[in-house]
Amino acid sequence: AQSVTQLGSHVSVSEGALVLLRCNYSSSVPPYLFWYVQYPNQGLQLLLKYTTGATLVKGINGFEAEFKKSETSFHLTKPSAHMSDAAEYFCAVSLYSSASKIIFGSGTRLSIRP
Amino acid sequence: DGGITQSPKYLFRKEGQNVTLSCEQNLNHDAMYWYRQDPGQGLRLIYYSQIVNDFQKGDIAEGYSVSREKKESFPLTVTSAQKNPTAFYLCASSTGFINQPQHFGDGTRLSIL
Predict the structure, then answer these.
(1) A32-44: b or e for each residue (b if 16 or more CB lie within 10 Å)?
(2) In 10 A of CB B101, how many CB atoms?
(3) How many CB atoms lie within 10 A of CB B111?
(4) Taking CA B2 as the corner, what is the angle to CA B47 and CA A76, rounded to the nearest 5 degrees?
(5) Which residues of chain B are within 8 Å of residue A52 when distances are taken between CB atoms?
(6) Is residue A101 classed as helix, strand or coil in its secondary structure?
(7) How many CA atoms lie within 13 A of B12 on its CB side?
(8) Which residues contact residue A30 at a Cβ distance below 8 angstroms, ignoring those fewer than 6 apart?
């Protein structure tokens, strides 16, 4: 069975500091992985996705994620945090058992300190 | 611009009432989904549809019903059988291919009067 785990329900960083949000997946087959961002009272917006090919994936708003098969990880990073990055972030994996379904992690709330 | 429209943004329900949440997409996507989000929690799948006139229960379908009569539309009815309906409801769509992401609407917040 496939699953995704986000480590840390809340992460707080200073403005200008490195952002690191952790995501580990479980899958017996090559996974398709996604990161989404959710601002208050809004829907989810796709930040980036990993399907095949290059393991370092660049997304919107300066975020990137690296697929590491040996560590079963897909951590999200941004070199320098901005106040506007404060939001909820969700890691997700596609389910092979049903081509249409995606499993979401429980989310990590990112706070930015001035 | 293509996208997903959910309406209304805020909805109030009296005890014992059924309410219907609207979801329309113009992305020409085959698959559509309804999720429920509670404070501090992730997304839980209520129903999904991979094609017109067909839909499947998700993880928390009890107390909810859906229809998929048109490709563009996937309304969700919260029935009186749903005892704790207060939540944020999100609609999404996708091409249905495993390597493609889901696209989300802006959500409907349902509250009990």
Answers:
(1) bbbbbbbeeebbb
(2) 21
(3) 11
(4) 70
(5) 99
(6) coil
(7) 2
(8) A52
Measured between alpha carbons, how far is A109 from B107 in angstroms, rounded to an integer? 19
Length of chain A: 114
Q: Which amino acid is at A63?
A: F
Cross-chain residue pair B31–A100, CB shorter than 8 Å:
yes
Q: Could you read off the pLDDT of A16-67 as tens digits, one per residue? A: 999 999 999 998 788 899 999 999 989 999 999 998 888 999 999 999 999 9
Q: What percent of chain B has pLDDT over 90?
A: 80
**Which two structure tokens, joined as six digits, stand for A94?**
């596609």
Q: How far is CA A69 from CA A30, A57, A72, in A?
A: 9, 14, 5
Higher pLDDT, B40 or B76: B76
Sign for the pseudo-dihedral over CA of B17, B22, B71, B4: negative
The beta-strand segments (E) located in chain B are 4-7, 10-13, 19-25, 31-37, 43-51, 54-57, 64-66, 76-78, 87-94, 103-104, 108-112
Question: Which pLDDT does position A17 carry in this prediction?
Answer: 98
CA distance linking residue B12 with residue A96, whole number of Å: 37
- Which residues of chain A does B40 touch, with a Cβ-Cβ cutoff of 8 Å? 9
What is residue A60's three-state secondary structure? helix
Residue B42 to residue A94, Cβ atoms within 8 A? no
